[in-house]
Amino acid sequence: MFTEDLAPFFDAESGFAVLATWKRAGGDVVDSVLFDEETSEVFPGEATAELRQITYRSVGAFADLCDGETVEIDTVRYRVRPPRLKDDGALTTATLVRIRK
Length: 101
Known about the structure:
- This protein is an all-beta fold.
- The chain contains no helices and eight strands.
- The termini are far apart.
- 18% of the residues are buried.
């Protein structure tokens, strides 16, 4: 059985990842995530939202991240939309909506 080593992809120092902070009520959790380019979406009756997407390990520190929670990356806060398992379930993706101050 083939098992892929995802560690190099999630290396925030020399890999492709950045550090993200999940702002939980029980205390902040920091983990490495893949952070996609910004897109935008127009919601009926609302302004355009700036969207980003993160990908993280399904069994990592963000395993219990839920819809509506807050993630901070590079001092910018985002609200999490419902996370989704990706492909074989080793990774999870979540769309982030930037929180305006």
